[in-house]
Amino acid sequence: MNASHSTTTVMYRQTVDYEEEHNPFLLHSRNYSQQYSQIYFCRLAALRPVVENAARNKWTDGILFRDRLLHLQQGDNCVIIGVIYKEMDLKPSILKEYSKNPAEPVPILPVKPSFVSDSDVVILEDETGRIRLNFDRCCLGVNILLTGTVVAVKGQETSSGDFSVDELCFPGIPPLKVPRSLDNDIFILFVSGIGLGAPWNVSMREAMFLDFITGKLGNEEDYHFCSQIGHLFVLGNLLSSAGDETLANKSNDQQTVNSAQQLFNAEPLISADRFLTTLSSTIPVTLLPGEADPTNLLLPQQPLHHSLLPSSSKYNSFRRVTNPYQCCINGRKILVCSGQNIDDACRYSTWDWNSVENRLTVMENMLSFRHLCPTAPDTLPCYPYYDEDPFVLKECPHVYVAGNQHAYGTRLINANDCGVRLLCIPDFSTTGQVVLLNLRTLTPQVMEFMIDLN
Amino acid sequence: ILEPVEYTQTRSKFQHLFSSYARAGSPLLFGEDAGNLRILQLDVDYEIVQKDTFLEDSSSAAVLRIYGVTEGGNSVLARVHGFRPFFFIICPSQFDPADLPAIKESLEKRARAVSSMKNCQGPIIHDLEIFEGRSLLYFVPSDPLIRFLKITVALPSYVRQLAQILERGDIDFSPYEESRYSTFEASVDFILRFMIETNMYGCSWVEMPSNRYHLPEKQTSHMQFEIDIHYTHLVCHAPHGEWLKTAPIRILSFDIECAGRPGVFPEPEHDQVIQIANYMTETGKSEPIARTVLTLGSCAPIAGAKVLSFDSEAELLEAWVSFLCATDPDILTGYNIVNFDLPYLLNRASVLHLSSFPFLGRLMGVMTKMHDTRLSSSAFGTHESKAFTMNGRIIVDMLQILVRDYKLRSYSLNSVSFEFLGEQKEDVHHSIITELFHGNENTRRRLAVYCLKDAYLPHRLMEKLMSLTNYMELARVAGIPLAWLLSRGHMIKVVSLLHRKAFPESLLIPDLKNTSHNSSEEAESYEGATVIEPKRGFYKMPIATLDFASLYPSIMMAHNICYSTLVRKDRVKYLKPEDYIKSPSGDCYVRPSVKKGVLSKILEDLLSARKVAKRELEQATDPFLRSVLNGRQLALKISANAVYGFTGASRGKLPCTEISASITAFGRRMIETTKSLVESKFPSSVVIYGDTDSVMVKFRDDLTLEESMSLGQQAADIISQSFPKPIKLEFEKCYYPYLLIQKKRYAGLLWTKTETYDKMDCKGIETVRRDNCKLVANVVSKVLEKLLVERDVQGAIDFVKKTISDLLQNKVDISLLVISKELSKAAADYDANQAHVTLYKKLYQRDPGSAPSLGDRIPYVTIKGRKDQPAHERAEDPIYVLEHNLPLDTEYYLKNMLRKPLERIFEPIIGKNVSSLFEGEHTRSITVTTPSTGGIMRFTKVSVTCLGCRTPIPQTESKEPLCKYCKANEASIYEKILCNVREYERQYAMLWTQCQRCMGSICQDVLCSNSDCPIFYRRRKVQKDLEDTSKQLERFEILPPPSW
């Protein structure tokens, strides 16, 4: 900038009103002596009244409700409630690998893109037992059903001991408040999958992105626009997962946990710290960990440790949070996650998962299931909660964002006379795209950083 | 025997519960116009009737009972009358047929004098005829016919009694002076006699012409229909063509659960039977007839199964008898029912004074009794087990079948179902069973589901292994009742075949007196099969294997070896030299032109029938028919091979050392001839090893697989010509590469075609022995794979070194180091100190409640201890080891477990250098865990140490995770710990979700205590590891991040 420009205007970044309530995903002490049954038990206990209520509203013809599976009688037309369990041979199983060669250590299994096969069985389970569901008379359902969802099922038990399904009912999207209206446009920015340290390092694009945020890119109009961005969410995979792959190779050779000395290369972490420091000095940043980031693997992933990001962690404007995470900005509830839950749910059906529309449908379904990651713990590793299931949605967010998706996508759904914005944030390292959301109108827009080397 | 009235009263109480399970079947038509009645015979027994009113003279007789099923699924009991047992003696010398009535009279008189025969209705001796024939044993030059007397008596038991009298010479047939008479065929089982006489085979179809049978006035059994018929009217169909079909057979698989007291395996004197699960199927139907569980106390419903609850144990047991009676199964199966479930039920009923319970058979009012049996068989070893009187129901215990037919590391239902069905089974320990039982209707339901699964699995095993089909075919081939296959050894099959073949030729089988031939003195031993001394080594070129197909049977056929062709040494001189063959062991047999041996005829029939079956198998498309034909060809092979064993079995019915010695002598000579022929006809070829019926040839060092195969084929063709038919040397496979360790120990890749190898073939190598830990089997198989498949000697060596290094550094999964042994008798009864017994005592001291009990398998690992503390004292419970961080004695595992088998494998490859595997760099780094209890730890104080360098951190800074020197490396130390946490988290999630899947529930805690499962210890260990590493991670989070 040349000092001769006499008409220097000072632009101030708009500030947002950021409220973080109690974070249910933060773990204070960890205990692993328990098993996974309790989390299903809590989930069922939390959602049974909700789904029963929904079902009574849906089926008003006075149909019989059986309170427990064990009270089921053959032949009667009734509604039963329970957790879905999908028995699928293609799910990764530690036992399958063991049977091949037990001398090997627990192998890191390549996860199949889809678990669906002809031999799949859908089962409904409650505290008292399980029954096999038969979808001969119900065309809908099998594909969208996920292990771990709580549903009400209408139908009857057949002579062979199956339950023949007529219709399904889900808990439905939880209530939400109409947010207060805002006077000004104000934007939040979402980015995911920056993937620092990848072999195909895209440092130019990152630099452009930094320049844009810090208001060094474009013209006056751009600066002005930039000043309206009040908050930045970094949704996981700040570091590249390429490091993970080399680890997998390494562990094949070396075989044991202890020998995998260096999981996270120091180099990318240093550049990540530098990157975040630059960002945090100009805009408030919320950082969620993702699958590839150096924190624990089980959901909810805990905030990255400050020692890994020593410099940026000193900024008050930098928040290291859990994945998933929920906060309230200018009265809008925002639920964000790094996308593992969506990826895993996709493996349960035969839809084309490269289609972002299908992924948005999964997100919408999850709201309607009132659960953030139903497939945990069965195929999605999660912490063995004992007296609650924190992933049960008690209220509906205004904005539900999933990071690290194949492509950008959005959908506005109407729930309880209020719009809910769903967003798929694409992976930055492969697309160069980020997403802006106008908090006033809940209108998103995608921005792409491209470098034309010619 | 209870009065029938009382019997029906008790039965009717629960009958209605099960009426829907009764056999449907189509109604049977009786009378003149009805078609002939045809049943598939499943079992035959007989009863003694004081006055058989069916017979004109109402004399005492044995009535045979055929239990069968019609094609429509009706159960039928055919009572067969009029058949009487008989045996033979050699006529006195200078016998005059006119004396027959006199002899008959003196026999009758002598028999009447015996108290047990005194009360016989009608004559004791029914018939006395002259029979012209020969003895099966020994060929007599000029082969004269001998006159025998055929003695037909009233009842089966009289045969043996009279035979003894005659053998002792305890009778006076004046004017004949002989005092002793050699008996023939007096030891034949009455049922077998009947089956041979009527030409009835095992599991065969029996037809009864409609105008020949009668309906009884009163039913005597629980079967749907009963008829009476004279034996001469039976039409028995040999199992061929149309008559290979089967009928709808009902199979009941069941399992019981008992509520044991803490620490004690359930005992019928004290512990209740709480549940009985039943899974009933009918052959030909895809859905089960019944899935029912009877429970003591309320039980929540189970989808797809019928749950019936009873308030008292007595009612539960009575209801089960009603169930059995209503459903009328032909076959009872289960897992270890013979030695656990059935004895437990019977003993329990007697403790409860339930007089109506022990009626499990199909005959009304016949009590089920239990007795001990002991089956000693050279093929199956000695087994003690229980036997039951359960007329008409055949007990097929899958455990016994598996023990007989398969060699496994473990026979627990868990490991068997993993082996054959590919499923891990949830295993609920008996101490938890009691807990579940005392809970509520839901916990009892949990138990019932488990119990049902245990009833279902044996059924699945039976289907998968096709045990029933195969055994039925064996019964058909051998011509004996199905049940005998399980209760007797191989001999009875040969006895049946021998009788069936010899009798039509008027050859009578002598009764050998036990004293003359065996028992008192050890049977003469004869030289066994030779082995050509192996040239040990690792052969990287193809090794062709030449096999004699059905070696022993073909020798017997080629040289006409038989009882009936064997010439006594002192009589050889009466024969022309061209009329006999002399075996290498010096015994002589007449040539087939003089007299063809019965054994050869049996074998020819069996082998040609096998050829037919194999040919039909190739053409058959129907899966059921295919399984039948496959079972048949297997049965024929087994039976053919049993013939040789029969002649050599010193405790058998008709041992003949001359025969078995001749056979092995021929075999030895053939192997030697083959060796010299190969080596002379194929210059530069070497026979590197030869076993009983095969020879391994290395033709040249530089041959391709294809060339070796064609040379092998040539060699087989050329050499076959030098042997008499039907002996045939066959070339079937090459080993390439081939690791020859010592005799009967080798491994190689087996090729039958040039494209791909068929499998890795290992003989005598540590892969199945269960007194080794799994690590040994795994390492050995991995090493063999590297050596043989990947041909990577260095890779195999590296793998061994890596494993040893991992072992010494404590990185091997503990489940691989576990050895388990059964506590088969009370601890005090063990003489020597055995590891599992010592451990048992230790566990009992710790907690008598949870200690294992008699019959449990005790898993253990060997831990470090004091210097020169014996190994058995260092056995410890793996879970205890995990929980207390006890150090394993990894060197013990290396020295005593791994070293020997690995040395054996590597010695032919790297020679003397083999010890380098166990010494050197990779054995230097040793990690020993610090125990959290006991020993020196009692005197130590826990202080906080730096997570980076383990130096103690001063009290004042005790919140710091790191010392001040390591502080600079905080990120990398954090990462290192995090890396472990992530790996353990991944394992935790995979292991515990897997257990939920196996258990079949996600809402209930996993209780499984199946220590055979590969992840059983791992899932426990990962909890502990994860907890420990998470604690370390949490120390970093105590301090807030530094800020500006």
Automatic annotation (TrEMBL), chain A:
Domain DNA polymerase alpha/delta/epsilon subunit B: 189-408
A Pfam family this chain is assigned to: DNA_pol_D_N
Keywords linked to the UniProt accession: DNA replication, Nucleotidyltransferase, Transferase
Keyword match Zinc-finger: no
Domain DNA polymerase delta subunit OB-fold: 35-167
Family annotation (InterPro entries): DNA_pol_a/d/e_bsu, DNA_pol_D_N, DNA_pol_delta/II_ssu
GO biological process: DNA strand elongation involved in DNA replication
GO MF term set: DNA binding; DNA-directed DNA polymerase activity
EC number: 2.7.7.7
GO CC annotations, alphabetized: delta DNA polymerase complex
Keyword check for Nucleotidyltransferase: yes
Entry's family note: Belongs to the DNA polymerase delta/II small subunit family.
UniProt name for this protein: DNA polymerase delta subunit 2
Upper taxonomic lineage: Eukaryota, Rhodophyta, Bangiophyceae, Galdieriales, Galdieriaceae
